[in-house]
Amino acid sequence: MNTMLDLKRLYGFSQKHLSDMMGEKLNDFRLEQAENTSDGNWDVVVSFLMHNVNAPETNGSIFSGSHLPFERVFKRLLLDTDGELIKYLIYNEER
């Protein structure tokens, strides 16, 4: 990947690296942010839906609280100019 912004390739590389690490299909995968750093690498934020393992059991009512069976998870990746994973970081919106 060259320094030109190529969103399709960033999307594909990010999805592949995370799918390999998570070991499952990532539902509703989204490229949220991509920034070319001063050293030519890519700082990428992605999101996807995962099963919410902390959601309490519901009694069959969809109105039994705001706990949904899925939650949107955000991850931050640092990719080199060839799309190889350099770092996998916990994403913090308040950085």
What this model shows, in words?
This protein is an alpha+beta fold. About 15% of the residues lie in helices and about 40% in strands. The protein contains one helix and four strands; from the N terminus they run H-E-E-E-E. It has one helix at about 5-20; strands spanning about 25-35, 40-50, 70-80, 85-90. A four-stranded antiparallel β-sheet has the order 1-2-3-4, covered by helices on one side. Strand 1 (about 25-35) and strand 2 (about 40-50) form a beta hairpin. It is elongated and about 50 Å long.
The proportion of residues forming helix, as a percent range, comes to 10-25%
How large, in whole angstroms, is the Cα Rg? 16 Å
The secondary structure category is alpha+beta
Distance between the termini: 27 Å
Q: Whole-number average pLDDT?
A: 82
User: Taking strands numbered 1, 2, ... along the chain, how are they ordered across the largest sheet?
Assistant: 1-2-3-4
Strand elements, count: 4
Helix and strand pattern:
HEEEE
Oligomer: single chain
Strand content bin: 35-45%
Count of individual helical segments: 1
* Global morphology: elongated
What kind of sheet is the major sheet? Answer: 4 strands, antiparallel
Low-pLDDT ranges:
none
